[in-house]
Amino acid sequence: MTVESTAARGSTRRSGAGGERAAASAAQSGAGDSARDAAGAPSAAPATSRTGDGANRNGGRSATKAPAKTAAKTSKATKPAKTDKAAKTAKSAKSGGGARASATSRSAKASATARAARGTGAEPELVQLLTPEGERVTHPDYSVDPSAEELRGLYRDMVLTRRFDAEATALQRQGELGLWASLLGQEAAQIGSGRALRHDDYVFPTYREHGVAWCRDVDPTLLLGMFRGVNNGGWDPSTNNFHLYTIVIGSQVLHATGYAMGVAKDGADSAVVAYFGDGASSQGDVAEAFTFASVYNAPVVFFCQNNQWAISEPTERQSRVPLYRRAEGFGFPGVRVDGNDVLACLAVTREAVRRARAGEGPMLVEAFTYRMGAHTTSDDPTRYRRDEEREEWEAKDPILRLRRYLEASGQADDAFFAAIDEESEAEGRHVREVIRTMPDPDTMAIFENVYADGHALVDEERAQFADYLASFADGAHEEAR
Questions:
Q1: Mean pLDDT confidence for 197-203
Q2: pLDDT for res 479
Q3: Does residue 82 have a pLDDT over 90?
Q4: In terms of Cα–Cα distance, which of 31, 21, 38, 50 is closest to 111?
Q5: What's 466's DSSP letter?
Q6: DSSP classification of residue 381
């Protein structure tokens, strides 16, 4: 359930084309839209103040206004008494033109109340090590110093993952897949966190972690089988310590916690990572997982990719506080990282899994990013969000910012980028060839592995289904005669 008043819900209604979500009552809805711009500036930058008419989407401009009553008191203390004419003018302004100031005052009060509820007057801190312009910045708690080869490897990972994702989307549009959930825009969050893991760590994904699967050496084409309908997963989870995709929202977080509790009882020093989205954070399974992980000090990292849209529902309709702060109530730390910064995601995840392996318990990582595409290929995001919002986040593209850094620092040349582009096109061709030649499953296989020692009822159903399939063949034979 969303946590907002009926009045707030009414004032944030959007039109069919998306509309503006910013309204006076948006100050009561948690992080608000101003947090959306935080990923475009280092965490050391001053927090952006907000007025009652909603969040400042331009990040750098402060628009704090004094409430009307405060301004009136100041005026009374410093100015001479009003004449009768001036008093009448003031009275008129109060009842007419002063309505705007009154509304601003009420909105400012609402904003202050929301900040008080969150316990702070500042915007959430954002861990960032690479700005959208491709400039390295530092953070007091998190750092990473990758070699030139490692940086080029991260770039290659993101480019090839995006190319695979684009090809899968195209194949679905051509009828080769039943559905596809794109990761477009979230490459840094997935590659950065995925490359922070050891082979003996275990991953529980949702259905969008194609980049993490790449980092775990899962053949990308195996991801397509389930979406084509030829298998129920396509890979052995124990081979790469990468669990099968989970379609049920949030359930894998509970599974990951139970697995992590088992790891701790076994005395192993590996970590478990549970991936989920901002929409899943509203599920009861996630809250239960947080409780058990905290109480049992489980070595699990909760990695939330906050792409700001749970299908068509914005994050501010799901939480009154930034998602990473939910960890406080369960007794373990949480941190928000720039999800479009692959270096920051790498550094933060490394620290989170280090804590887990050292027996320091769970940690919540909120990767603040943006879903550039549709929720899935059955979704139309133009119905609920503005084109300007997407354009704003295109300037924070995770691949572009790393390329800018590589070019500016001289750690990659044109030949390298050309080779990666050529490799990505070859990857696209390979995916097309595999999906179009992927064999259909044995229709009788559904009866296998139901019971370890077999069952009479299953045997009977198998025979009935075989006769049913044979009837089609007999009919075709009769027509041929």
A1: 97
A2: 57
A3: no
A4: 50
A5: H
A6: G
